[in-house]
Design goal:
Elements: E1 2-4, H1 7-17, E2 24-29, H2 35-47, E3 50-55, H3 75-85, E4 89-91, H4 95-98, H5 117-120, H6 124-139, E5 143-147, H7 151-163, E6 169-173, H8 193-198, H9 201-214, H10 220-231, E7 238-245, E8 260-268, E9 271-279
Parallel strand pairs: 1-4, 2-3, 2-5, 3-4, 5-6
Antiparallel strand pairs: 7-8, 8-9
Helix pairs in contact: 6-7, 9-10
């Protein structure tokens, strides 16, 4: 696996790898890799000739009181996982390399960036859109792979790809879960044993609402009430949001017959976790 540490090195490597019309799939990550990330690599391998990945803990998507400094960094282990998975090129730049002194340009996702996670993390999606646009410019992939767990991020990035005419197909891959339903996340390692046990309430809340939907319920108010009722079974949980929204606009829905995104975010102890579930349109 080729390791590139600067944008210029990665651009040159991707030009070479793209030779003879080969397609490139990009898997952007912040490291601390788990099976969910590796499922993105596998999806890229199935659809592209070349797989590129990035590891970059992006400072511009963290707020001043968030966990940028403490975010898990396990580069050596991550490198071995990606090499074993068959990744062709890894881009692992420094913060100074991605944001040279004097950098002022950013990508503003507009009102979409202020919904769900964007409402509680002001500026978060500006940072996400900016770094992903930079990665797209450097790598110029044919496809880019993201996990469905970050559903609001996917909505923001799909809008960015459309609005800025990136010739890239964005692929959302299914959430990978633990046996008890907890969505894999790099932040799960922050959880104590008791917090890890309690964290399953997020996926249980989604499953409860999904069961109602499968039995014919289409009222967003009823489904949201089911989410809230299950989450309330953990009195120590601090709720950020429980929402039933359009998966593209992230705006609240009145009913779900045309499909919906059920999304939850909450703090378990000091760790903020997110999860979601897509309801398909009713036949």
């Amino acid at each position: 696996m080729l390791l590139c540490l600067t944008p210029a090195e990665m651009q040159a490597a991707c030009r070479s790898l793209r030779a003879s019309g080969r397609t490139i799939g990009l898997v952007p990550t912040m490291g601390a890799l788990h099976a969910g990330h590796l499922s993105l690599v596998a999806a890229a391998q199935g659809q592209c000739d070349i797989v590129a990945a990035s590891i970059f803990v992006n400072p511009t998507q963290f707020g001043p009181t968030e966990d940028y400094a403490a975010y898990p960094r396990t580069f050596d282990e991550d490198f071995q996982k990606l090499a074993a998975a068959g990744v062709h090129a890894l881009f692992a730049p420094s913060a100074e390399g991605m944001y040279p002194p004097g950098t002022t340009t950013s990508v503003d996702p507009g009102e979409l960036g202020n919904r769900l996670d964007g409402a509680s993390r002001p500026g978060h999606f500006r940072g996400v859109a900016t770094i992903v646009a930079r990665l797209f410019h450097i790598v110029q992939p044919d496809r880019a792979y993201f996990g469905q767990k970050d559903a609001a991020q996917i909505a923001v990035l799909r809008r960015m790809v459309r609005d800025l005419n990136f010739p890239i197909h964005l692929v959302a891959c299914p959430i990978v879960r633990e046996p008890d339903g907890l969505a894999l996340s790099s932040r799960n390692r922050y959880l104590s044993i008791d917090e890890r046990r309690r964290a399953g309430v997020l996926s249980r809340a989604l499953a409860t609402a999904e069961s109602l939907a499968h039995n014919g319920e289409t009222s967003a108010e009823v489904l949201r009430a089911a989410l809230l009722a299950t989450l309330a079974t953990d009195p120590l949980l601090r709720l950020d949001y429980a929402a039933v929204v359009d998966p593209d606009t992230l705006l609240p829905l009145a009913e779900t017959s045309h499909g919906a995104l059920l999304a939850v975010a909450a703090w378990i102890g000091g760790t903020r976790l997110i999860d979601n579930l897509l309801l398909p349109p009713r036949a």
